[in-house]
Q: What sequence folds into this?
């Protein structure tokens, strides 16, 4: 009887909270070596402590379209897409050797053939990227140069709109990340026309909610 009770408690801990998927949740994932995750229910102001194996000792790089991009950094080189509601998992290539990233984006839902997972690391004048699609056996690595004259521009934000990835810099350049083929990308400077649109900020009003 005690064994059955322990097994039931274990299964209960590994189940998502009963209203998961219906409301936004605040999820606190502890550091390496600590077990369990805390889910805060905003509707009831209540915390649920769970132990979801897929989240143990992992880092959530981003959350888009209902999917988590699990991309370990220092903790693990394991990388995958995970849907917390359906519990479906899509394995991605290992992140070994370690790649330190500043931003992660998912271009579209994983069932879209054009879905791309991209990790970006920002440097002065350049952006280092890793990208892949579900089913790829390795990441494609590339260094992209920003189109400023003195090489001192820096990425301000990265966003996604209708499957396209955009990069906004502090010098108010707006770039479209163009995929030339499956293993090469270029930055297309959209060159906002100041005569018709005084600032990039005003231009971005036509692309709401893509930059966070």
A:
């Amino acid at each position: 009887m005690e064994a059955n009770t322990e097994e039931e408690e274990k299964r209960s801990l590994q189940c998502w909270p009963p209203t998961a998927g219906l409301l936004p949740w605040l999820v606190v994932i502890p550091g390496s070596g600590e077990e369990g995750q805390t889910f805060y229910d905003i509707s009831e102001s209540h915390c649920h402590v769970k132990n979801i194996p897929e989240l143990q000792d992992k880092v959530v790089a981003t959350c888009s379209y209902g999917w988590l991009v699990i991309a370990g950094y220092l903790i693990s080189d394991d990388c995958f897409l995970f849907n917390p509601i359906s519990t479906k998992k899509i394995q991605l290539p290992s992140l070994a050797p370690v790649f330190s990233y500043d931003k992660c984006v998912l271009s579209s839902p994983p069932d879209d053939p054009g879905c791309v997972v991209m990790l970006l690391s920002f440097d002065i004048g350049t952006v280092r990227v890793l990208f892949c699609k579900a089913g790829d056996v390795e990441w494609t690595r590339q260094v992209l140069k920003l189109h400023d004259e003195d090489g001192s521009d820096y990425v301000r934000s990265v966003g996604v709109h209708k499957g396209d990835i955009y990069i906004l810099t502090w010098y108010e350049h707006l770039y479209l990340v163009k995929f030339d083929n499956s293993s090469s990308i270029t930055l297309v400077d959209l060159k906002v026309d100041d005569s018709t649109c005084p600032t990039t900020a005003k231009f971005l009003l036509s692309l709401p909610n893509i930059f966070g």
Summary: Residues 93-206 form one domain.
